[in-house]
Give the backbone structure.
Amino acid sequence: QVKLVESGGGSAQAGGSLRLSCSASRSVGCLGWFRLVPGPWDEREAVAAISSTGGITSYYADFAKGRFTVSLDNTKNTLYLQMNSLKAEDSTMYYCAASTFCPTNWFYRYGYEYWGQGTQVTVSS
C-alpha cells in the first residue's frame, strides 16, 4: 500500500503560481498528477508524471508544457507540481497518483494503483 497526501492547493490570480506537493508513504516507481474534469462524472485528465524506474523520466500533458513543472525529491518521497501562468481553466481538484511502474501510456488513469484525496486549486481571473 502507498498512502498519498497532497497539499499546496488554494487560490491564485490568473497569471500567478502555486506549488502542489504529494507526500508518499514509501518510494514508488511512478508518481503523477491528475485533475478532475468538470462534469457529472469522475473523469480525470493527466497533468504530469515522473517515472523513477531505470532513471528519471518526466511526462507532461500538452496543456501543461511550458507552464507546469513536475519534480521529485527522492529523499522525501515527495512529488511536486510547480504551476505558473495559471489560468481560470486550471481551477479544479488535483490528485496525486502512484503505481509501481508508469503505465505504457503514462496518462492512462486506470494504470495507477493509488490515489490521494485531492487538493483544490482555484484561479480567479
Remarks:
- Residues 26 and 77 are 6 Å apart (CA to CA).
- The radius of gyration is 13 Å.
- The longest strand covers residues 44-51.
